[in-house]
Amino acid sequence: MRDSSKTLVTVVLFGLLMVLFSFIVIRSYENSTYSSENDRQVREDLAGTIDTIITGASHAEYGIDPVKLDKNLGTSSYNLSGPWQSTYGTLMLLREELARNPVKKVYLTISEDTFWVKETTDGVLGDAKILPRLNGLSDRLEYMKNSFGLREYPKLYQDMVNRGFTYWSAAILGGDIDGVDPEARGFYGKPKNSVKLSDEDAVFNKDRYKLNTNVNQSNWKNLDEIIKLCREHGAEVQVIVVPVSDNVIWTRYGWDLWYNHAKAFCAERGVELWDFNLYKERYDLFKDWYSYRNTTHLSDYGASKFTGVLIKTIKRAEAGKNISKLFYTSYAEMKEDSPYAAIYNAYDWENADPSKRPAQTDPSGEEPPADEEEPPADEEEPPADKEEEPADQDEEPDDEDLGDEPEDVTEENTEAGKE
Q1: Least confident among 116-125, 280-289, 369-378
Q2: Share of the chain above pLDDT 90, in %
Q3: Cα angle value 67/99/218 (rounded, 5°)
Q4: Lower CB density within 10 Å: C or N end of the chain?
Q5: Fold (topology level) of 30-395
Q6: Rounded to whole angstroms, how far apart are CA atoms 82 and 55?
Q7: CA 24, CA 42: separation in Å to the nearest integer?
């Protein structure tokens, strides 16, 4: 009996110590602004002033600069996006901001993985970053209930503890962690890396991997709720695709199937879709060797260029001008104009080594192999980039600096981009 009592006391004490440990480590981190995602206080300070919201996952967080948007459009915007942010996470964050801000426009960004990600199994790290951004305990509990499967809770706890230790280590030892910049209004720029394919990779990796074009109906349901919520608050929704690198488009197939899903979804709900992967000037504006931080995310330079393109497109739409002529009608059409297409078409196929011929891909496709890796970055020094002036000069934003050439296009940046 005495042994049983000692065991019970030991278990209770251990449990209390774990609760105290978790409170100290995790609570301090999530209530700080010592992380790029912990912007709760920043948004509270801006409450009542935001009229434009950009939201979505990391493509938007790293790709659209609200400060530049405001300077040229006279808006008061905020980038509410985050890494691996789920559609449900977007819905929860929008509930808070639409309730306390006079929002007139919401730029809802989607990407090639928006439709297929499964909330309760695929996005634990993104979900973990949503939690500290939510205000009330009830919202956090609701989010955990609907976002985490049973197997994800240990991963969630481990991730929060790891980030808590990182915070305390930096706070005590003076380590360097990216913090929230209130002046950036949710934008998180990152330096450039070259993701340019070598000539050999451009030839032998064309359409090598199948894009995941599955549709998870729960994501469509969340997107429906987002559109409904925005309309209830009088906010217009514009759906946007932030451009990814030519590298990732060239080496994957199935893009038009995904695009057809996106077009159908938007058309059925009466919202407009601007897919800037299909922007006709993309090959002049977004170079693989300095416009991206990795194959799927823009660099700070690329984000500046893209925000400029977005500003011009918005102004053109507001003036009642034709938007459709700015875009290719399909990914197949766009890929024909790719710089990689010229390399591919110029290859001497007749005298090629049969063992080096590209693998044939089945349009119905198989999933990429489990050990799939991104093609290596090309270290070749890029030529100077000369941009053509857009045809519609009257569409130039007031801010003439929509993104200068990089000061050093040969700079090697060894920071690996993470999702």
Answers
A1: 369-378
A2: 49
A3: 90
A4: N
A5: Rossmann fold (3.40.50)
A6: 8
A7: 23
Q: What is the pLDDT of residue 137?
A: 76
How many other C-beta atoms are found inside a 10 Å radius of the C-beta of residue 254?
19
Q: Is residue 279 within 8 Å of 327, Cβ to Cβ?
A: yes
Give the integer Cα–Cα distance in Å for 168 and 174.
9
DSSP state of 278: G
Query: Distance between CA atoms of 291 and 107, rounded to whole angstroms?
Result: 22
To the nearest 5 percent, what fractions of the chain are helix, strand and coil?
Answer: 50, 10, 45
Instruction: Count CB neighbours of 172 within 10 A.
Output: 8
What residue ranges in 249-380 does DSSP mark as E strands? Answer: 252-253, 272-275, 292-294, 297-298
Q: How many CA atoms lie within 13 A of 93 on its CB side?
A: 31
Distance set, CA 47 to CA 101, 180, 190, 255 (Å): 6, 17, 27, 39
For CA atoms 60, 64, 65, 69, the dihedral sign is negative
Question: Is a pLDDT exceeding 80 seen at residue 121?
Answer: no
CA atoms of 205 and 98, how far apart (whole Å)? 45
**Segment 358-371, tens digit of pLDDT:** 554 434 333 333 33
pLDDT at 65 over 70: yes
- The CA angle 80-73-390, to the nearest 5 degrees, is 110
pLDDT digits (tens, 9 = 90+) for 98-107: 999 999 999 9
Residue 262 has pLDDT above 90, yes or no: yes
Residue of 288, 323, 295, 330 whose CA lies nearest to 309: 323
Q: For residue 382, is pLDDT > 50?
A: no
Average pLDDT of span 108-125: 72
Q: How far apart are CA 308 and CA 316, in angstroms?
A: 12
Write out the H or E segment, with its range, that includes residue 105: strand 105-110
